[in-house]
Design a protein that fits this description.
- By secondary structure, chain A is mostly beta strands.
- In chain A, 0% of the residues lie in helices and 45% in strands.
- Chain A has no helices and nine strands.
- Chain A has strands at residues 9-12, 18-23, 34-39, 46-49, 63-68, 71-76, 85-93, 98-101, 105-109.
- In chain A, strand 5 and strand 6 form a beta hairpin.
- Chain B contains no helices and eleven strands.
- Chain B has strands at residues 3-7, 10-12, 18-25, 34-39, 45-51, 58-60, 68-73, 78-83, 92-99, 107-110, 114-118.
- Classes of the chains: A mainly beta (110), B mainly beta (120).
Chain lengths: 110, 120
């Protein structure tokens, strides 16, 4: 059972804006940065957002991250069919002394 | 370009051992923390273990503590995971991943992963 909680699924139509949330606690999201990954079937995760709101070079600005208290969010605007994938949040946990991943959210583009 | 290449996976029986290796290139290996992350078939990502740049700091998930040992050889730019007393629930793709930035443990980039299957 993941300590970072994500909804198992989300959906949207092309062009829409979708938000995926990640809920944690004071020992992880409440005190450390959040990272977001996109994983396509059969491939390794790809970093979308680091340090809660920064985008690596090459990641479109349609992807944005935010963090407030013990909750983080990933927003995808101008949804495209190629955005259909699994999305994971992650953060270091001070109590666990380890990396925590959310359970993942499968995004369907209708 | 950063490259991480895992090797050593395969099919083993419950109770047996396996040693995974990860060869790194494209960055100064000793300057970065490193991780092993796994993904069981059809499941989410699960952090397994992390090691500091010097090898002095070791961290393990509760699910592998006492059975798995992480280590590194900075002279050979290599990361290892010794897996003992393997269980069927250890079946997964195992990813080697660098800490995102200096001092970070949260992983990125990642290798392609290697499959470990534990079955009788």
């Amino acid at each position: 059972q993941s300590v970072l909680t994500q909804a198992p699924s989300a959906s949207g139509t092309p062009g829409q804006r979708v938000t995926i949330s990640c809920s944690g606690s004071s020992s992880n999201i409440g005190s450390n940065y959040v990272y977001w990954y996109q994983q396509l079937p059969g491939t390794a995760p790809k970093l979308l957002i680091y340090r809660s709101s920064r985008r690596p070079s090459g990641v479109p600005d349609r992807f944005s991250g935010s963090q407030s208290g013990t909750t983080a969010s990933l927003a995808i605007s101008g949804l495209r069919s190629e955005d259909e994938a699994d999305y994971y949040c992650a953060a270091w946990d001070d109590r666990l002394s380890g990396v925590l991943f959310g359970g993942g959210t499968h995004l369907t583009v209708l | 370009e950063v490259q991480l290449v895992e090797s050593g996976g395969g099919l083993v029986k419950p109770g047996e051992s396996l040693r995974l290796s990860c060869t790194a290139s494209g960055f100064t290996f000793r300057d970065y923390n490193m991780n092993w992350v796994r993904q069981a078939p059809g499941k989410g990502l699960e952090w397994v273990s992390s090691i500091g740049g010097s090898g002095a700091y070791l961290y393990y998930s509760d699910s592998v503590k006492g059975r798995f040992t992480i280590s590194r050889d900075n002279a050979k730019d290599s990361l290892f995971l010794q897996m003992n007393s393997l269980r069927t629930e250890d079946t997964a793709v195992y990813y080697c991943a660098r800490g995102h930035d200096y001092g970070d443990y949260v992983p990125d980039p990642w290798g392609r992963g290697i499959l470990v299957t534990v079955s009788s």
